[in-house]
Write a sequence for this structure.
């Protein structure tokens, strides 16, 4: 027969192990909260962790809806029959009372819930099914930034007298549920903000380029019949300008559609992307943009996209600031003699515009800084040379054989 000291020591060891288990579970749950798992999976993880630590046989997280009804959002151990009737009005049963009063509610004998006055028939059915499966329950409120979100309810098959420590631990799990919900809301808001920003950007692009091009094209088309009679040569020039505008608008629309489908953008050959950029720039400037492509080989998607983005930024700067008469784009690709993949790629963009002085901190150079960062990200070399009234040359080169490359400007 063991002595009292041995029993006491074993009890302390068991209690220490239990506390370690609780701490490990809470740490694990906090780690999960920092992932991008869907909210439903996060809440199900929380109730699955809470049950064994709180000696419960089932658990559910209830969300208070706008109509004052609490509905199950995460659960473990509850039967489909109970879930079917499990919507609980605010202020009814332990779950509804906990949400209303923002205090823990404990029910030792669930059959007592049948005596609650003013409960609807479908709720009576739910309580009957509940009391047939579980004898006791504990419900604690879930609050998010003082918002009454709902409740965390724990169910016990046998009558169970909860301790203050169990109530405190249940509150910890309700706090974790609140964190999970709050984090999910923030992620959703960030995603919505990103979508809104992208829509606004596309709207600006449509207004600044496509809409303006089509408006100008419409004006030219309206005047062409008159010009054809009065000045055929001017009409020919108008037709050329109309052709540039419509091609530019079409290319701009194609580019915007590609932006809406990133995978399509990544899969499009670089030659086609540059051709679209050249036609778009030509439409905006109403001047031809020369494009020369030499060689053909497979470029990695990351390199292809970087070349496209840098060319896009360079042409945008030329359109906005250069006042150029001529623009030339040249792409030279040297394939590997063994497998046909790209060994070297060189992109040149030249204009005869106004040029600029070296002013690294000025706002006009922000686009150039972004271009340099893009080049650095794929170990490419970017050189930007410009002289006042003598134009600008942008040279981007990538060598598959070079692991580290510098970026200059």
């Amino acid at each position: 027969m063991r002595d009292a000291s041995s029993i006491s020591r074993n009890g302390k060891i068991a209690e220490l192990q239990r506390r370690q288990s609780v701490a490990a579970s809470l740490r694990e749950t906090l780690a999960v909260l920092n992932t991008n798992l869907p909210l439903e999976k996060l809440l199900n993880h929380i109730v699955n962790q809470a049950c064994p630590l709180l000696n419960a046989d089932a658990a559910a997280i209830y969300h208070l809806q706008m109509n004052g009804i609490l509905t199950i959002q995460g659960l473990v151990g509850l039967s489909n029959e109970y879930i079917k009737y499990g919507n609980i009005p605010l202020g009814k049963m332990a779950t509804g009372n906990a949400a209303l009063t923002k205090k823990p509610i404990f029910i030792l004998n669930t059959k007592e819930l049948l005596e609650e006055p003013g409960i609807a028939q479908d709720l009576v059915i739910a309580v009957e099914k509940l009391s047939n499966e579980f004898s006791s329950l504990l419900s604690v409120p879930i609050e998010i930034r003082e918002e009454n979100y709902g409740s965390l309810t724990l169910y016990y098959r046998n009558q169970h007298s909860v301790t203050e420590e169990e109530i405190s631990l249940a509150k910890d799990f309700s706090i974790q549920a609140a964190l999970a919900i709050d984090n999910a809301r923030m992620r959703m808001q960030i995603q919505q903000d990103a979508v809104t920003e992208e829509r606004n950007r596309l709207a600006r692009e449509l207004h600044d380029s496509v809409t303006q091009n089509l408006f100008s094209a419409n004006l030219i088309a309206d005047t062409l019949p008159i010009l054809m009679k009065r000045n055929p040569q001017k009409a020919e020039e108008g037709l050329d300008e109309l052709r540039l505008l419509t091609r530019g608008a079409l290319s701009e629309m194609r580019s915007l559609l590609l932006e809406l489908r990133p995978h399509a953008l990544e899969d499009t050959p670089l030659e086609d992307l540059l051709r679209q950029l050249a036609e778009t720039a030509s439409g905006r400037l109403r001047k031809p943009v020369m494009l020369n492509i030499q060689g053909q080989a497979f470029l990695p998607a990351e390199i292809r996209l970087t070349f496209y983005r840098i060319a896009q930024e360079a042409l945008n700067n030329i359109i906005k600031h250069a006042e150029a008469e001529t623009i030339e784009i040249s792409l030279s690709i040297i394939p590997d003699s063994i497998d046909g993949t790209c060994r070297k790629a060189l992109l040149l963009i030249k204009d005869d515009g106004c040029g600029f002085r070296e002013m690294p901190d000025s706002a006009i150079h922000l686009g150039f800084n972004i271009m340099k960062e893009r080049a650095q990200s794929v170990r490419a070399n970017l050189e930007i040379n410009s002289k006042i009234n003598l134009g600008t040359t942008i040279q981007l080169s990538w060598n598959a054989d070079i692991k580290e490359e510098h970026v200059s400007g």
Q: What stands out?
A: Residues 51 and 351 are 69 Å apart (CA to CA). The chain has two domains: 21-188, 286-409. The chain is about 55% helix and 20% strand. The first strand starts at residue 58 and ends at 64.
